[in-house]
Amino acid sequence: MAGHSKFKNIMHRKGAQDKKRSSMFSKLSREITVAAKMGMPDPDMNPRLRLAVNAAKAQSMPKDNIQRAIDKASGGDTDNYEEVRYEGYGPGGVAIIVEALTDNRNRTATNVRTAFSKNGGNLGASGAVSHGFERLGLITYPASAGDADAVFEAALEAGADDVSSNEDEHEIWTAMDALHEVAKALEAKLGEADSAKLAWRPTTTVEVDESNAGTLMKLVDTLEDDDDVQTVWGNYEVSDDVMEKLG
Fold first, then answer.
1. Which of 28, 167, 176, 239 is deepest in the core (most CB within 10 A)?
2. Order of strands, sheet of 169-174, starting from the edge strand that comes earlier in the sequence
């Protein structure tokens, strides 16, 4: 277990928090409804639903909204959402994985393909880039949860595999099937996490230069703004200097 991972989920990069609140709530609601529909409507009996509810709470989503999303699953009038994954390449040869929940595969595929083609990338076939990523559990805490050593110790005792800490947050990585148990154990030690979800961690990263970074960020923003897209993952590293120049 080592704290060497420099990977930053693009969901946490500077500026991503400025996303429209209503769009974010819509995506969180969709995940809650799908999770409740796939298992029990009780978060204590349904690990995926518990993670979805915790993610919603971390974004200050009102309790009424959360309950409505759960109730919608048992209402029988819900859209049939399915999970779809797209893989492709962005500017500078960056590998990108897009996860979506959609009730219309054709619409979503068209939107994702257009986003790639208009922003210096191209959509690949299934499996085109995922071989360069590991499927893991990711739990994030704010830096205020404790110093790096304290969080490392808590994560180790909870059964996590890897911890990476920086000035903004702590990223705690787990085996995919251990995510729920580790998250629960950490909650008792560190309080509620900012997020706990399945993630794609790249085995190697690509340093993106200034000439490609702007187009890459535009591609990521376009994908994230799509209502059907839940998460976007990439294997890129953009230096702080380049990010500052991009504003």
1. 28
2. 162-165, 169-174, 133-142, 195-202
